Amino acid sequence: MGGDLNEERDGAAWGAIGEALVEVSADRPTFPAHQPHRLIDAIFARGHASATPGDPALLDGMPVTRASDHLPVWVDLEL
User: Fold this and answer.
1) Max Cα–Cα distance, the chain, nearest Å
2) How far apart are CA 34 and CA 53, in angstroms?
3) SS3 for 2?
4) pLDDT single digits (tens) 15-33
5) What are phi and psi of 51, to 5 degrees?
6) Which of 2, 13, 41, 75 gives a 20 to 30 Å CA spacing to 52?
7) CA distance 32 to 77
C-alpha cells in the first residue's frame, strides 16, 4: 500500500498503517519535489520475501517537479 500520508513518521495515520504493515520504501525526503525536506510519502507491505526501494538516481534528468509536488516513491517487492 502506498500513500501520501501528509504527515511524518510520528503521525497518527503512519502509526495506524505501521501496526499492520511494514514500511518498505526508502528513508528519504519526498516533499516538496523541487527541494525535498519532509518524508510524507511511503509504501507499506507484508508477506514479502524482500523489498528494494527504488533508486532516486533513476530520476536524474526527468521532469518530476512538473508532474507532481512530491517525488515518486517505488519499491521492487519479491513475493
Assistant:
1) 37
2) 21
3) strand
4) 999 999 999 999 999 999 9
5) -140, 130
6) 13
7) 26
